[in-house]
Amino acid sequence: MKWNKMLHGGDYNPEQWLDRPDILAEDIALMKKAGINCMTLGVFSWSMLEPEEGVYRLQWLEDIIDRLYEAGISTILATPTGGLPHWLTKDFPEVMQVREDGGRNLPGKRHNFCYTSKKMRERTKEIDGKLAEMSLRHPGIILWHISNELGGNFADGACHCDECQRAFREWLKRKYGTLQELNKAWWTTFWSRRYTDWEQIHSPTPGGECLVHGLNLDWRRFVTCQMTDFLRWEKAALREYSSLPVTTNFMYFFKPLDYCEMQKEVDVISWDSYPFWHKEKDEVPMAVKAAAYHSMMRSMKKKPFLLMESTPSAVSWRNCNPLKRPGMHMLSSMQAVAYGSNTVQYFQWRKGRGAFEKFHGAVLDHKNGENTRTFREVAEVGLRLAKTQKQIVGSCNRAEIAMIFDWENWWALEDAAGPRLDINYKRVFLKHYRAFWEMGIDVDIVNMDGELKDYRMVIAPLNYLYKKGYADKVERYVESGGVYVTTCFSGIVDENDLCFIGEHPLGKVLGIRSEEIDAPGEEFRNLVDFHGKWYNTGELCEIVHNENGQTLAAYEKEYYAGSPAVIKNEFGRGNAYYLAAEFEQVFYNDFYGGLMEEMGIENPLSAKLPYGVTISERKGERDIIFLQNFRDENMEVETAGRYEETDTGMLWEGKITLGAFECKILQRMEGKVNE
Ligand code: GAL
Questions:
Q1: Are 621 and 526 part of one and the same domain?
Q2: Which of 18, 293, 342, 447 has a CB 3.0–4.6 Å from the CB of 260, allowing a cystine?
Q3: What CATH number is attached to the domain comprising 654?
Q4: Per the omega criterion (within 30 degrees of 0), is the bond before 585 cis?
Q5: What is the pTM assigned to this prediction?
Q6: Among 156, 188, 190, which Cα is nearest to 172's?
Q7: Is 377 one of the catalytic residues?
Q8: Helix, coil or strand: residue 227
């Protein structure tokens, strides 16, 4: 990377203001006041860069890049493919996406092109090439930002046009070789769905075939593969001239695209984070979600990532858009940094005057210049990043625990038509994650392909689908001393979504035999007694037999009363735990709390944290501890150590007091209290 600082800035659209040189001059002056050192240019600028096919107007962009550079502000330069100009969609309608109902979208909005279209790729290569060639003249540019939130505007992000159908069939031919193999993998003898000609294969659609799970799963894989190919295409166009690193901005756990696959094409991960703060009085559920998303972005490359977008105040696309309360902007920004971000970037620098995002939060509003609370809070973030960057920039979180979150599992699980149609992977996953958030212990979030042996404990909730080789990997992991926790409805199907026949693929490791699974209605919910405390079970209760392990809890009610609900099995040098039911949150807190105690893993302050307070730590030359309070009131944390606030130099011994929505950045000092 060409930079060695924390970046602070965001999406800047000077092309909306080219007839207002006074505003452009004011922008740069105010950016300096706000402590901004990096702007993202060119997102959605295609019609201003190429107003007609083959006619390029790059000078305005070059001028701005240079003026920013002179002011000490770098540029992240986006390729403009997120928004299509009218000449392109009018002359070449085939660049527009086709919906799953077969209708082609009309021009408009954004993120809605066909990623297979030859014409789209041809025009993309031209404009990207021009930008890349231009970039050689401008040292201010530090990073390529490919397109914008790929796949982000339509229900499943996919295009169903004829070109895509052909590409899908080719992809299937490469994968299966013969139709016989494909029919076997998709179990098409069921309902007479056998294919006898590749041409009969069509993408899943509600008006046609959508109940062959193997087809659905392969289609989703293909969509990721094709979108990734488009990303690779754009990267190649840039690479003809430029060797600068590339990124593309991801969005949370975005179901249509397997980011663990896509990330392989980018040099650095970036993503856009818009938590719904102040949705309810209790900010913890939102803080947990945001922390999980940040953790996943970091875990994909096990390196710092870039927070590419966040709002400095409110968004404008929810039904109700609360302003960030005083302090929340700093806390939310520091939360990203705490989990591994090396940037705080915003959407957007200045509110536009018209169209869909004119009221979306921005550093500058329509009338007040720097005289706003938002501007002041942004400037405070800028100052804080500048003060702490030396310590933070080279550091990164190093978790001892991993949770498996896998897109292929997600797709197959929620399509399974099993015990419930509304199984929600993310909801259940976040319950497990939350237990660690509440303890202030960092967790990596990886997919099934990840290396397990780097971790002391691996947790795989609702791990329905096992990729090829996964069960063997887990077996070796536990055998050589790892701790593995998994749950009901795991190890059910192989990579083709075909049910395993016979014993559970991890039966020996888990010490169980699974018989059947109940999805009890609300009035039939069960209970377990775990270490003398009662816990409610949730939406799934699996009836399993303990073949070899130790039953730690059993069901209390129903015909399966007495059958095991939590089983521990010693296997090789490690331990495996099977949670046969879904439980209420407090169970996970207690269960994992106990395991952490047994394993001697604690948070970086070795502190018992009050509700709403958490910790994340970046390891570096000196470790940086981010102590975050998501409560709108002062909170106290008892520690046994001595700590220095990195930005203020303030010293704390023993008890640390946090203000409402405060994040302290701390470093350990030698010695203990009263020494
Ligand atoms: C993002 C998008 C930005 C802006 C923002 C508003 O999803 O990348 O361009 O629209 O949302 O919150």
A1: no
A2: 447
A3: 2.60.40.1180
A4: no
A5: 0.97
A6: 188
A7: no
A8: helix
